[in-house]
Specification:
The structure is a single chain. It contains 5 helices and no strands. It is 54% helix and 0% strand. The chain is an all-alpha fold. The protein has a domain of 115 residues: Four Helix Bundle (Hemerythrin (Met), subunit A). The longest helix has 32 residues.
Amino acid sequence: MNPQPVGQHGPPGGPGGWPAPGNGAPNNAAVLAPPAAQVPPPPGPGRLPVSRPRRRGWIAVGVMLTLAVLMALTAVVMSTIKLTAPAPTATTTTVMAPPPPPTSFSPDQLAAAKKEACHASESAATTINTAQEKYLIAARDRQSPTYGPALANFQLVAILETQYMQQHLPPATPNNVVDSTNGYITAILALADAHTRGLSEDEAQQFVVAARKAGRQLDEACV
């Protein structure tokens, strides 16, 4: 039995194997292993693809700058147009005044206004005459303690009562009643002024006469 050479692990000779003894090879010849297959060297380092820098960001920046410049130019053009444009023509607005109130009144309105004015005058004249009588009594002795209060009372009554008469002259009051009422008011205020100035009885007499005359005219208008 021929031992196989050390390091030989292949199958015995035969088809597809190594050469068998007796086929032209000595029995004691060493059987060499087939040459190792040539492994091709690894390919050399090739040129790696170079990545190109992206230009999209720069393009966006350029677009934004262009838009900003266009907007600035537009603003300048609009400002120039506004400065060179002619001023608008001033318009005049005509405001129509409301129509005046009617100047004619019905007979019922005239009668109601006359009644109101005459009733107010009658009430005021009664209060004024009472204050006037008290003043004339106190004025006999202007050093008496009742003179000052009587004068102040007549002044106050004259002011309040004449205002009351003016407040009760409706628009429909007949003209003769209006004129008589205003004449009486003027006479009473003039009399109060005469008493305030401290006129003597003789000096104040003309104002007393004027007040009485105005009172009679008012009575006639209210008939």
